[in-house]
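Retro notes (design track)

What went well: tokenization of the new backbones is finally stable.
What didn't: we kept losing track of which sequence belonged to which structure.
Fix going forward: every design gets posted as structure first, then sequence, in one message. First example under the new rule, 270 residues:
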């Protein structure tokens, strides 16, 4: 038996490094397309084309609703995709609606105008950050506060409706002020809004459901700005109706479970 010491391992004898994990293309393409919709709406607003700006936000909403479903259906969820989605939402549903509203009507209110726009933008950021950290403690069937796409639809939907009706922005600037503040502040409340996440596209449905969808599309085509804005107004008020109904029944109104990691939050979400 030799008493010679073990040879020092050479650097090239080290274990090969594992290949870095790639990025899933399909869901992130939808996210990038939604981000482009928000960017497009900002550019259109800067050029005074507010109808196209509103349509850009609504297109971003459709694409944003698809990226998560596509990721789940193709089993391509990733932490990168979640962060990318939040950043895209901040642009499309936070910064874009605030800037469009400010350029369209709020600028004529001076400091009150940019305060309203900033409050909306800040509330969108707070709502998205809270959503990311509260995912494990919130009932999946409901959103905690108005979701940012719906808030963006309230703001830009009102602009789209007034633009189609050829109403001068200065005539409804205080209404725009109120809509912007309502949408922004409702995002950071604990009011529950139905999320539609329990609706599965893989499940079979009665034939009447398909007929109802076809009729809904036909009704929207009668007057898209009015019908779409009315739908989001109803949704924007539905959370408060549900909140009052649950409080009247003695139920937990915010539908938030108590976090085990943050015991100090107990009792704050009533």
């Amino acid at each position: 038996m030799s008493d010679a010491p073990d040879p020092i391992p050479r650097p090239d004898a080290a274990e090969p490094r594992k290949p870095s994990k790639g990025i899933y293309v399909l869901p992130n393409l939808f996210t990038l397309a939604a981000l482009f919709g928000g960017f497009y709406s900002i550019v259109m607003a800067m050029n005074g084309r507010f109808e196209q700006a509103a349509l850009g936000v609504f297109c971003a909403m459709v694409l944003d609703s698809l990226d998560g479903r596509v990721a789940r259906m193709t089993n391509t969820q990733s932490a990168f995709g979640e962060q990318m989605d939040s950043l895209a939402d901040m642009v499309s549903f936070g910064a874009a609606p605030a800037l469009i509203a400010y350029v369209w009507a709020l600028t004529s209110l001076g400091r009150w105008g940019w305060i309203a726009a900033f409050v909306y933008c800040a509330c969108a950021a707070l709502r998205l950050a809270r959503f990311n950290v509260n995912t494990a403690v919130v009932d999946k069937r409901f959103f905690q506060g108005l979701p940012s796409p719906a808030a963006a639809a309230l703001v830009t939907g009102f602009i789209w409706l007034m633009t189609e009706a050829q109403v001068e922005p200065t005539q409804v600037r205080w209404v725009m002020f109120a809509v912007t503040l309502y949408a922004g502040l409702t995002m950071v409340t604990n009011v529950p809004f139905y999320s539609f996440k329990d609706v599965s596209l893989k499940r079979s449905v009665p034939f009447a459901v398909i007929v109802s969808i076809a009729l809904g599309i036909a009704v929207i085509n009668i007057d898209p700005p009015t019908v779409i804005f009315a739908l989001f107004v109803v949704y924007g008020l539905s959370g408060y109706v549900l909140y009052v109904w649950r409080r009247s029944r003695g139920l937990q109104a915010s539908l938030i479970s108590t976090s085990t990691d943050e015991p100090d939050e107990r009792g704050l979400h009533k």
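Added context from the reviewer: The domain at 25-255 is CATH 1.20.120.1760 (Four Helix Bundle (Hemerythrin (Met), subunit A)).
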